[in-house]
Design goal:
heterodimer; A: alpha+beta; 8 helices; 9 strands; 27% helix; B: alpha/beta; Ubiquitin-like (UB roll); three-stranded mixed beta sheet; 10 helices; 8 strands; globular; autophagy (chain A); Atg3/Atg10 (chain A); Atg12 conjugating enzyme activity (chain A)
C-alpha cells in the first residue's frame, strides 16, 4: 500500500490516485449513491470527486402549505374555496438535494469538502386535480409532491437543516467566520459552501500514531484509505455517512 | 503608527480607477425611476472592494428617486453581462474584465463602465453574503491562506493580536496606508525567512479555472526564481521561455495592478512588493494582440 510522501499532506498526483481508489471502494460498496470523477471541460489537472444526494433535514419542521403558493396557480384548476378545504398536513420528512464535491486544495494540500444544497424537494400535499407538471413536481410518494424549485439553501438554512444540532455551535464559532462558508469552487468558479481546510492536516495527524514503537496504530494512512478516513471524519458534519463497506 | 517607507507599495496603495456606475435600464423602470437616471462616478482604489462602496452608490441612486428598500447585500455589479465577483479586488476585476494591455496603442477604457443591479441577485454565479462583514471574512481568509502557503501553518496570522488583525482590515477600509502596512509588513516580509511557497494566483482568459499551484521561490540549488521562471514553469505553452519574447506585442503578458512587470524580477521580491492587500500576487495573463 502506497503511503503519501508527506503525510498528512497530499500532492495533486497523490490526491488523484487516492480519489480513484476511493471511487472504486464506493462502487463496490452497498452505498446507493456512488461517488464519481469529473474533469474540467477544457483544462487538465482540475478533476474532483462528486455525488448528488437526497438528504433529510435534521430538524424536521411541521410543514404547512402556504396559501400564497396556491393562489398563484391557474384559477381554473384550483378555485378559492378549494384552498380552504385543502388539508394542511404536517410532514415530518422533508428532503433536499445536496451536491457534494471533494476537491483538492493546492494551498492546504488536503482534500476539501465543497457542497451546495438546493431546495429541490419541498413536500406539499397534492391538491386534488392539480397536474404535477404545473408545479414542476416530482412525485415521490402518492400523496406528497416535491417541488423542484432549485433555489440554494442559505448559510443559516444549512446550519439548521444539514448540521447536527449538537455540532452547530462548534462549527459556527470555528475560525474567523465559522467552519462553513462560501467560496468559489476551484474548478467551476461558482459559489459553493465548503468546510474550511486549515485544520484538516492536524486532524489527519491526530488519528495516526506519532511513535514508531506503537505497533497497533498506523503512522500514516495509505493513499487507499486516505479519503474514506478523512470523509468519515469531516463528512458527518454535513450529512455524509461513509458506510462500513468502504473499509472492507 | 507609521509603516516602513517603500515607494512601490505606496504607489500601488495609491493607485485608483475612475468608475462609471450606471443603472440597469429595465430595473430602473421597475424600481420606479421615471426619467433616465444619470450615472454615478467614483474614483476607487485598485486595492479596494466593491462592497465597501455599495452604501455610497445605493444612497446616490435612492436619492435619485429609485424606490429600493432592500439590503445592501442585494446589490451587485456586472460588466457586459458578466457578474463581478465582489470578493476580488477592484483592480484585479478591471485587469481581468477589460483585458486591456498596458502596452497597446489604444487608450485604456476609462472611466470603467460598470452596471449596478438592485434586483435578481445571481446566487448561482456570485457568493451571496452580508456585504461588508463578508468582505472582511473573505479578506482575512485570503491572508490566512497566504500565511499557510508561506509557512505551512497559519500561526503568524493567528498569533497576531486581535488589535493587529482588526488594524489590517480597518487600514484597508479607511484607506490608511500606515495603519495597514505597519502590520502587513510583518506578514509579507515573513521575518526575513524565505517562504516555502509564494501566495499567487494566475487568471487566464475564457473562463479557465484560476491557477494556484504551490510555487517555490527558489530552485533546487537555492537560486531565486524570477517571475519569468515561474510563468514558464506553470504555463510552458504560453511562456515558452522565462525571458521576454522578441515579438513583444504578439506574446502573452502578465499584468499586475495595470502594469506589465519585468519578467526578470525575483518572484519573492514581486510577492513582497506587488501583492494585493490580501497578500496574494494576482496576475492576469493577457494574450497577444
Amino acid at each position: 500500500m502506497a503511503l503519501p510522501d508527506h503525510y498528512p499532506f497530499l500532492t495533486r498526483k497523490e490526491f488523484d490516485i487516492a480519489a480513484k481508489l476511493f471511487i472504486e471502494q464506493s462502487k463496490r460498496s452497498s452505498d446507493e449513491e456512488p461517488w464519481s470523477w469529473v474533469e474540467h471541460e477544457k483544462v487538465k489537472g482540475f478533476g474532483y470527486i462528486c455525488r448528488k444526494s437526497l438528504v433529510k433535514r435534521v430538524n424536521p419542521v411541521n410543514f404547512i402549505i402556504p396559501e400564497n403558493d396556491f393562489t398563484q396557480i391557474d384559477d381554473e384548476i384550483i378555485e378559492e374555496e378549494d384552498l380552504n378545504s385543502l388539508p394542511t398536513v404536517p410532514v415530518s420528512d422533508e428532503y433536499f438535494t445536496v451536491d457534494y464535491h471533494i476537491v483538492y486544495s493546492t494551498s492546504y494540500k488536503v482534500p476539501v469538502l465543497y457542497f451546495n444544497a438546493y431546495n429541490s424537494a419541498k413536500p406539499v400535499v397534492a391538491p386534488y386535480g392539480v397536474k404535477p407538471e404545473l408545479f414542476h413536481m416530482e412525485i415521490l410518494s402518492q400523496k406528497i409532491l416535491y417541488i423542484l424549485d432549485g433555489t440554494l439553501l442559505t448559510n443559516d438554512e444549512i446550519y439548521s437543516n444539514l448540521v447536527h444540532p449538537l455540532k452547530q455551535n462548534d462549527i459556527k464559532t470555528a475560525g474567523f467566520n465559522g467552519a462553513i462558508s462560501q467560496q468559489d469552487h476551484p474548478t467551476l468558479l461558482i459559489p459553493f459552501y465548503y468546510l474550511h481546510p486549515c485544520e484538516t492536516a492536524t486532524l489527519m495527524t491526530s488519528i495516526v500514531s506519532n511513535s514508531k514503537m506503537d505497533n497497533n496504530k498506523l503512522q500514516a494512512i495509505p493513499l487507499e484509505g486516505y479519503i474514506r478516513s478523512w470523509l468519515s471524519l469531516v463528512g458527518s458534519v454535513v450529512g455524509i455517512k461513509v458506510v462500513i463497506d468502504y473499509f472492507i | 503608527m507609521t509603516a516602513p517607507q517603500n515607494p512601490i507599495t505606496r504607489a500601488i496603495w495609491d493607485g485608483t480607477l475612475p468608475i462609471k456606475f450606471s443603472l440597469d435600464s429595465t430595473e430602473a423602470a421597475a424600481l420606479g425611476a421615471k426619467a433616465i437616471v444619470e450615472p454615478y462616478f467614483i474614483e476607487a482604489p485598485r486595492c479596494s472592494y466593491f462592497p465597501l462602496w455599495t452604501s455610497q452608490i445605493r444612497k446616490y441612486f435612492v436619492d435619485m428617486a429609485l424606490n429600493f428598500i432592500g439590503d445592501d447585500a442585494e446589490i451587485w455589479y456586472d460588466v457586459d453581462g458578466t457578474p463581478l465577483k465582489w470578493h476580488y479586488p477592484i483592480g484585479l476585476l478591471y485587469d481581468l474584465h477589460t483585458g486591456y494591455r498596458p502596452d497597446s496603442n489604444s487608450p485604456p477604457p476609462l472611466p470603467w463602465p460598470v452596471t449596478v443591479h438592485f434586483k435578481n441577485f445571481p446566487t448561482d454565479k456570485l457568493i451571496k453574503a452580508q456585504a461588508i462583514d463578508a468582505t472582511q471574512d473573505f479578506f482575512m481568509s485570503m491572508i490566512k491562506e497566504a500565511d499557510f502557503l508561506r509557512n505551512g501553518s497559519t500561526k503568524k496570522v493567528m498569533n497576531l493580536s486581535k488589535n493587529d488583525q482588526t488594524q489590517l482590515w480597518d487600514g484597508l477600509w479607511s484607506k490608511n496606508y500606515d495603519k495597514f502596512w505597519s502590520v502587513n509588513y510583518r506578514l509579507v516580509i515573513n521575518d526575513g525567512q524565505m517562504p516555502k511557497h509564494v501566495p499567487m494566483r494566475i487568471y487566464l482568459p475564457d473562463n479557465c479555472p484560476v491557477i494556484q499551484e504551490p510555487i517555490s521561490p527558489i530552485d533546487e540549488n537555492g537560486n531565486q526564481l524570477t517571475l519569468g521562471d515561474v510563468l514558464h514553469q506553470v504555463l510552458p505553452e504560453l511562456f515558452p521561455s522565462p525571458l521576454p519574447s522578441e515579438n513583444a506585442s504578439a506574446a502573452p503578458v502578465p499584468v499586475i495592478h495595470g502594469i506589465i512587470p519585468q519578467l526578470e524580477i525575483p518572484i519573492v521580491w514581486a510577492s513582497q512588493n506587488l501583492c494585493y492587500p490580501d497578500n496574494f500576487l494576482h496576475i492576469v495573463v493577457l494574450l497577444g494582440i
